[in-house]
Amino acid sequence: MFVFVMIFSLSGCWDSRELNDLALVMAVGIDKVKNTDDFRVTVQIAKPSGGGQPGKGGSAAADEPVWTASAEGNTIFEAIRNLAKFSSRRIMWAHNNIIIIGESVARDDITPVIDFFTRNVELRMRTWVAVARGEARNYVSAKTGLENIPAMSISSLFRYSELPSESVKTEVIDLFSDFLSDSIQPMVSGLRMRERVISTENKQEHGGEKQVELAGGAVFKDTKLVGWVSPEETRGLAWIRNEMNNAIITVPCGKNKKKQISIELRYAQTDLISKIDNNMPSITIKASARGDITEQDCLTHLSTEQLKEKVEQLANDEIRNEIKLGVKKVQKEFKSDILGFGRTIHIQHREKWYGGIKEKWEEIFPEIPVTVQVDIHINKMSLYQEPMKIEKVESGNYK
Amino acid sequence: MRNAKIDQIQYFSLFPNLVFGKAIGFTSGVLSRQVGADVWTSMLIGFVIGTLIMLFMTFIGSRFPDKTILQYSSHLLGKWPAKWIGVILFLFFSVAFTTSANVITLHIKEYLLPETPMIVLTVSYVLLSMYGVILGIEVILRLALFALIMTILLDFLMVIGSIAKFDIMNLLPLFDRGIVKNITSSIYLFPDLSFAVLAVGMLFPLLNQKKKAYSLTFKSMIAATLLTVTWPLFEIGVMGADITKQYVVTCMQMARSAQLTLYLPRYELIMMILFVWGVIIQSMVMFYCAMYSFKQTTGIKKDWYIILPLSLILMIGTYLLGYDHNRFVDFLTTPWPQITTSLSTGLPVILFLAALIRGKLKRTDAE
User: Fold this and answer.
1) What's the whole-number mean pLDDT along residues A310-316?
2) Do A72 and A80 meet the contact criterion of CB atoms below 8 Å apart?
3) Does residue A279 carry a pLDDT above 80?
């Protein structure tokens, strides 16, 4: 009797959803409809490949692997409901890879986007988020990357973006946390379109389609996008936000600026140290990393130790400049604390933070003096004991 | 119950199960709204106080090794005060059951089966708990060891699934709202601690090796502390206080935020499978204690005469409390912590003072 009752009550038939009834969203873009307050939701949905005819290799192979569609509504939810009017399957969010916020939405207010995607239980909090330069729907519908499903290509950009380090990696949880915080402002990964930059003789073969690139970051103040930081500025900001782990930087080899030395940095670490004098905080940024020389375009007469010392100095200068560039941009131009200076002061001077600084933080932040200290330590120079062709230099044959 | 006996390992397994289930989700949510990132420190303080109360309760129980709290209340305070204590404990255990049951029903309703009617979940869960009570306390406590293993696995999986995203900065500054606020807010842990404190009063006579009661209680509470505090520590370390306080079922949100979800999109389902065992033990023990306190208060001989109407009452109570999760969380914020703190600290103190006055605190065989 007991088992009988349980079989019927716990079978979960109310919530049964068969896979062939579902439309698995791979990417979603949210835009504002021009000159209105309405939202346009664009989804990229993975197409089932079960339509092939047995024995003929399956026709599904010739099909597009994704189906992209847009719908509009007063709210994001309403737009999704309108999408359901012509989608033959029920929209499912559990496998979504990326949320792309259109610039129009970002400049107006990102609250509805955050609210919808953090409220929805199907969505993972680890889904990537990016802000598009222009309309999000162009990015969602773009055929980009090596994967069959373009959304997978875009999400891979985030996973492997560390080496260029020219953007930040933002997940829903990061955006939500910064959005709620009163001591740090949100910064979100930026997307832009770019050519594949190869021969264009045959556009079909050689990248006629523009590709989605992860580049720079979108700076928010409270709920609105206030501006963009370039990839170069983002590198500096990534140091401060402790989002730099591995990176490649180049420094000039000597007087000839065209000749460069590449350094691969590892174990990057940044500490923010705050001080408060007369209720005016100041911040010291201490960045450090270990690095390996991975390429050297020039010959040198310096010994290994001398070269290391010189490269370390040049790397320190380069990174210090990148950090200063980023700080200047957000502190003076955007006046938005995406750097976490407020958070640092809150942690290190809790009583003073609550004792007046928190309330005036918006006015204080742009005026804070910032000192940057960088300490790069070069470990090794790949497989070489001595710089390449050193004997050529020493014999005086090098010009 | 008279003939039932529990061994040391079952007794040890009991308290982590009684405390864990609601504390890692609902309590951490309520606490984070009070103390921000200091949920884990406040909870730790609560556990230290709770362990001392548990030892105190064990001390009183050991003076009357073969009696339940109701029986020695009658011995110390007289028949009618003991009847009142019986009624109060019956109400406490019944409401404790409904709060415990709603931990499961709300997990399922909000994250896994949103379209299943709440009444179906409520009725199913109460029937399942009733089945455990019919099988008896020994069966429930045997299951407690299995549930403890599941809970350890759950913690282990949560830690390895989310450690990559653990940021120690999220925990700082410590004691952000002040140490006093941390201590006073620890009362929000008492709805969970009181399950264990008052269950000791009912279940102590069952322990077959009473000489080891102090050591077992202490070790069991240490295990409960470690298993439970790991959750708010990681909830804050991974999600941050601002996100933690937004959600009702914080532990589910934690599972949803784990790094592992990149590879296992239905990771929370696995977590849920490991999680339910501890909560089922919690609910069954509360149901059993409610039934038994009513039995001892009224003198009714047949368990069935109590179990059936009690099941119906618990179904209605669980449904009414859990139907609106805001109402449930409001209840968990006020007045439930205040009631449980008063009861789980006040009752042992009253009984201790009565025993002291009546000279009943001398050493017993239990020591």
Assistant:
1) 91
2) no
3) yes
Q: Are strands A66-73 and A370-380 parallel, antiparallel or unpaired?
A: unpaired
Q: Which long-range contacts (CB under 8 A, 24 or more apart) does A34-40 make?
A: A34/A104, A37/A74, A38/A72, A38/A73, A38/A74, A38/A79, A39/A72, A39/A73, A39/A74, A39/A75, A39/A76, A39/A78, A39/A79, A39/A105, A39/A112, A40/A70, A40/A71, A40/A72, A40/A79, A40/A102, A40/A137
Q: Which residue of B lies nearest to A96 if distances are taken between CA atoms?
A: B265
Q: Tell me how far apart the alpha carbons of residues A161 and A291 are, in angstroms, rounded to a whole number.
A: 18
* Residue A327 tokens, joined: 């700080």
Higher pLDDT, A8 or A129: A129
Which ranges of chain B have pLDDT less than 50?
none
- The burial of B55, by beta-carbon neighbours within 10 Å (0-12 exposed, 13-18 middle, 19 or more buried), is given as middle
For residue A211, how many other CB atoms are within 10 A of its CB? 19
A119 touches chain B (CB under 8 A): no
Of A44-58, A274-288, B219-233, give the lowest mean pLDDT range: A44-58
Residue reference for tokens 């021969």: A199
**A163 in contact with chain B, both atoms CB, cutoff 8 A:** no
For residues A118 and A301, what is the distance between their CA atoms, to the nearest angstrom? 59
Q: Can you tell me the distance from the alpha carbon of A58 to that of A49, in angstroms, rounded to the nearest whole number?
A: 8
What is the largest distance, in Å, between two alpha-carbon atoms of chain B? 64
| Closest by Cα among A347, A352, A337 to A273 | A347
A221 touches chain B (CB under 8 A): no
* Residue from the list B127, B173, B262 with its beta carbon closest to the beta carbon of A346: B173
Buried b (16+ CB within 10 A) or exposed e, A275-311: eeeeeebbbebebbbbbebeebebbbebebeebbebb
CB within 8 Å: A177 and B240: yes
Mean pLDDT of A85-97: 88
Higher pLDDT, B261 or A147: A147
Task: State the distance between the two ends of chain B, measured CA to CA, in whole angstroms.
Answer: 23
- Determine the pLDDT at residue B97: 98
Q: Is A84 on the interface with B (CB under 8 A)?
A: no
Strand, helix or coil for residue A240: helix
Q: Which amino acid is at B215?
A: S
Is the Cβ pair B246, A118 closer than 8 Å?
yes
Tokens found for residue A336: 């938005």
Q: Which residue has the tokens 């439309």?
A: A23
Order of strands across the sheet with A280-296? A247-252, A260-277, A280-296, A370-380
Question: How many percent of chain A have pLDDT more than 90?
Answer: 54
Q: What type of residue is B345? A: T
Distances, alpha carbon A358 to alpha carbons A279, A280, A281, A332, in Å: 11, 12, 12, 19
Q: How far is B111 from chain A, CA to nearest CA, in Å?
A: 6
Pairing state of beta strands A22-32 and A39-46?
A: antiparallel
Q: So what's the pLDDT on residue A160?
A: 76
Backbone phi and psi for residue A224, each to the nearest 5 degrees, phi listed first:
-120, 145
What was the pLDDT predicted at A57? Answer: 44
Nearest to residue A377, comparing CAs of A303, A285, A266, A260? Answer: A266
pTM: 0.89
Contact A121 B111 (CB under 8 A): yes
C-alpha distance from A78 to closest chain B C-alpha (Å): 19
DSSP assignment letter at B6: B
The answer to which of A234-248, A332-346, A359-373, B262-276 has the lowest mean pLDDT is B262-276
